[in-house]
Specification:
mainly beta; disordered C terminus; 44-stranded antiparallel β-sheet; single chain
Length: about 475
């Protein structure tokens, strides 16, 4: 028997390119179903072309150009600001360029970057994480090279201002601000030094780090006190003795002997624990004005005052503190979160964590709001602050990566069976079923409908209305008749 499916996509491509030639030779817009479609964008000024259903598209909107072969490749550029990006089998290969600055990532592990940064330095970086790090710049003070574990020198990498090592973990030196740490057989032996700071550790046996009270000038040119501290541990993680805020108005002292007892005392806050982490915990926070009692923290919690908590995990929890509120029933069965930070009021409701999610962000001052609803894997709905709305039926990855624009560009076209858009400013709408097998557009008095590869079309404009079947006109109404009827 003949397998017609093997001829389907070649036929769609052929029909698409034939339709594209006719569209360029004739009308600006053309609708031939999944084979080929060229139409104006609903949410932004511009146009879009789609060929062979989800396998190719090209569009241009507000100075931005884009074309893609989902899910293999996508290229986006904005010539006005000299910006460009492209992805190959995202996230396998990812490239970004803005002016002379660029970054190329391969599998999130191998990366190259360069160009003039904000300081005007032509910095070039190469990384094969976590083995090889290299940076070169006209300013030789910024240069470094590291080949882990043999030898290296890093700057502003791995959460440290500077790192030097030889045969890691045999020896390494790290610097964060003014604190320098020398490590021998990391993490067993280390020695620390800095402004008013000395310390040493033989982990996990014993360690002691002390810092005296120092002073600094803040951004308003006022001298402020930087509290000192004294951290001592023995047989980590069983014994700790700490003093913090030395030289300030709120010094604190704590003692921990796990798993039996732990306490912290200060002018602003007292905390006592018995049998941590599965025992009883009591907090009296006089500065923020609340009292809290925990048992098997964080499973069972009660708090009252400026912070209120009633938690009986995994059955029920309700908490409120500093404009934040959270509620859950059955842990993942139902969860509600709210954040109030004037003028922002953000609410999110979830059922079975990511199966269903409804998020609303409202500006209580301007009364503008945005909303996103996801029901995985069936649909996603998005409303922006400007009133623009998008609905997509069948959303496999979008609910899991709600703010990932690359997913929307390279993967959404593959399974978006139904797409609907509405422009909040103009009221223009569009709907597409099965990659334009059915498509409908409305902008003001103009209406366009196409069905079955464009074999059935209806159009109503200011010049009149009419039907086309197999590209043959079937009747119609002139403009004056249409106007009189309306």
């Amino acid at each position: 028997m003949v397998n017609f499916r093997q001829f389907l996509w070649p036929l769609l491509f052929l029909a698409g390119f034939l339709a594209a030639d006719s569209a360029q030779a004739g009308a600006e817009e053309s609708l031939a179903g999944p084979a080929y479609a060229k139409f104006g964008l609903t949410l932004d000024p511009g146009w879009r072309e789609e060929v062979a259903g989800p396998l190719f598209y090209r569009q241009q909107a507000e100075g931005q150009k884009q074309w893609a072969l989902p899910p293999f490749f996508c290229r986006t550029s904005t010539p006005q600001v000299d910006w460009e990006e492209w992805e190959v089998f995202y996230p396998v290969i990812d490239y970004r360029r803005f002016g002379s600055e660029y970054r190329l990532e391969l599998g999130q592990f191998l990366s190259f970057s360069g160009g003039n940064n904000q300081e005007g330095n032509g910095v070039r970086k190469s990384t094969l994480f976590p083995i090889y790090f290299r940076q070169r710049s006209p300013d030789t003070n910024l240069n470094y090279t590291a080949l882990v574990p043999f030898y290296g020198h890093l700057k502003n990498r791995l959460f440290r201002d500077e790192i030097k090592f030889i045969l890691f973990p045999l020896y390494s030196e790290t610097r964060k601000k003014d604190v320098v740490t020398d490590n021998y057989l990391f993490p067993i032996f280390d020695r620390r030094r800095g402004e008013g700071l000395t310390g040493w550790e033989v982990w996990p046996l014993v360690g002691d780090v002390r810092k005296s009270t120092t002073f600094r000038t803040n951004s308003t040119h006022e001298v402020e006190t930087v509290g000192g501290y004294d951290h001592l541990f023995a047989l980590w993680p069983f014994y700790f003795k700490d003093r913090a805020g030395l030289g300030t108005t709120n010094p604190a002292a704590s003692l921990t002997v796990l798993p039996f007892y732990s306490q912290t005392r200060s002018r602003a806050r007292d905390e006592t624990s018995y049998g941590f982490p599965i025992g009883f915990n009591a907090i009296d926070d006089r500065e923020q004005g609340y009292v809290e009692h925990d048992f098997f923290w964080p499973l069972f919690v009660q708090a009252h005052g400026s912070k209120t908590v009633s938690r009986y995990f995994p059955f029920y929890s309700r908490a409120s503190h500093n404009g934040m509120e959270s509620i859950f029933y059955g842990f993942l069965l139902y969860k509600f979160n709210r954040l109030q930070a004037y003028p922002l009021d953000r609410r999110r409701t979830r059922i079975l964590y990511f199966l269903y999610s409804d998020t609303v962000e409202r500006n209580t001052q301007s009364h503008e709001f945005k909303r996103r609803v996801d029901f995985w894997p069936f649909y996603t709905y998005d409303r922006e602050l400007d009133g623009n709305r998008r609905t997509q039926v069948l959303a496999v990855l979008e609910p899991l990566f709600p703010n990932n624009r690359t997913i929307a560009r390279e993967y959404s076209p593959l399974w978006a069976l139904w797409r609907a858009e509405m422009n909040g400013r103009t009221g223009a709408t569009s709907q597409s079923l099965l990659w334009n097998l059915y498509r409908r557009e409305k902008a003001g008095p103009s209406k366009k409908t196409s069905l079955l590869f464009g074999l059935i079309q209806y159009q109503c404009t200011a010049d009149g209305s009419g039907w086309r079947v197999c590209h043959l006109k079937l009747g119609g109404k002139p403009a004056q008749t249409t106007a009189a009827k309306s």
